[in-house]
Amino acid sequence: MRTILKITVLFLMFLPAISRAESKDIPFTLDDRDRIIRTEQKLEALKTEMKIRFDANDKRFENIDKRFDQLFNFLWAIIGIFTTMMVSVFGFAFWDRKLSLAPLKREDEKLKSVLREFSRSQPKLAEILKNAGML
After folding, report:
1. Angstrom distances, CA of residue 132 to CA of 82, 99, 104
2. Is-above-0.90 flag for pTM?
3. What is the pLDDT of residue 131?
4. Domains in the chain: how many in total?
């Protein structure tokens, strides 16, 4: 216990000497001031150069955005043209099919009416038409 007390007392005696050693003033010279000024000037020059480069990049990105807008407008036009063409083709196909089937329907109706009239005199034909659901 005494040794610990001796060490503590010794430490407390040398404490002011240790604290003075740490608070030693470091002289600030004119060279140091000039060096700081040159560093600040270089830093300002670097900031302006970076600002110029960032502005150039912003302009480039704006140009790219305009190109994308033009591309999207072109794609919408192509999609519109393709949709119009497909609607026209399907519309023409349905119209043509309806137009070409109309004469066949008229002939079919004529044939059915002839068979119905003939079935009045032929009972076997009337039975066949009944089974087929045409009478």
Report:
1. 46, 28, 20
2. no
3. 86
4. 1
